[in-house]
Amino acid sequence: MDRRIFIKSGTLAFIAARLGGLNIFASERTKNADIPFTGDDDEAVPGPLKIRFLGTGAADWDEKPYEGYHRNHSSILIDNHLLIDFNAMAASMLPDGVHPKTIFYTHSHSDHFNAKDALDLGIERVFLSKTWMAHATGKFEKAASETGNKMPRIIGIDALRPYKVDGITFTALPANHGTSIPGEQTLIYLLEKGRARVLYATDTGGIMAVGAQYAGFDYHCKVRNPLTGLIMESTMGMDYDEDFRLFTHSSAKLVQRTTDMLLEYGLLKLQDGGKVYLTHLAKTLNPSPDVLAKTLPEPLFAAYDGLEVEFS
What pTM did the predictor assign? Predict the structure, then answer.
């Protein structure tokens, strides 16, 4: 199998230069465990890593059902108190009595980031790439002024650096995705809790080598550290590869090839019956859920809004 179908490496040299010589290889990361502890509780939290899909749709979804079904914009709730991405469409999927205070953003697109919706939710702490921190701060200041809500603490983060928050390590890895903000580096996240290592990859066209090598799940790593879970975007379905969005998004066929390669080389170790979860599905580039369920090869599984999974 051609490993090039799994990792897009063309921007490796560019990003390495931007990061000022940061050693990206997993062996160095293991040796130099420089993890800034930014949460109130630095101790390990027992139990599995729990994820609830608040939304599984791409940007072309709105509030109206499409062909009898609906998806909110992509967002996940982690261990009932941490978020990756959020806007008001996802609020209906929050469990009763759950009020997250911390959010990690992948990028600035409105289906992932909305300052007013975050303030209305009561978010107090925000993590996002330093490359668009000024833009985000302006959006939050405007929303706070209009609503009277308190400004959150906004923390600018670097790609290829782990941040431990409330017992979970979030490692920001570069995504292959573009926005209208010049110089913005979009992100995907490696989530680690205990022995669980779950990659949450949306929006991105494939997985970039610079992140996979740093995190230890690339074929070329001297010290390999396999994933135990994969959640990856499938903006385009199995038969929709020939679409311009492939430059900055993934298709189900690409996720399948990525999964096959990771499993073949022992870089993804699923539990018995474990699935690779698809999210960020475009309504016009994917079939209905019933058809999708019949056409996806194992172990791919199309996540749906409200789905809860555990990684241990």
Answer: 0.87
Helix, strand, or coil (residue 260): helix
Give the integer Cα–Cα distance in Å for 104 and 174: 14
* 312 residues of the chain, pLDDT tens digit each: 444 444 444 444 344 444 433 333 443 343 333 445 454 445 566 789 999 999 999 999 998 999 889 999 999 999 999 999 999 999 999 999 999 999 999 999 999 999 999 999 999 999 999 999 999 999 999 999 999 999 999 999 999 999 999 999 999 999 999 999 999 999 999 999 999 999 999 999 999 999 999 999 999 999 999 999 999 999 998 877 777 787 899 999 999 999 999 999 999 999 888 999 999 999 988 888 888 888 999 999 999 999 999 998
Burial of 21 (C-beta count, 10 Å sphere; 0-12/13-18/19+): exposed
- CA torsion sign, 309 to 33 to 175 to 221? negative
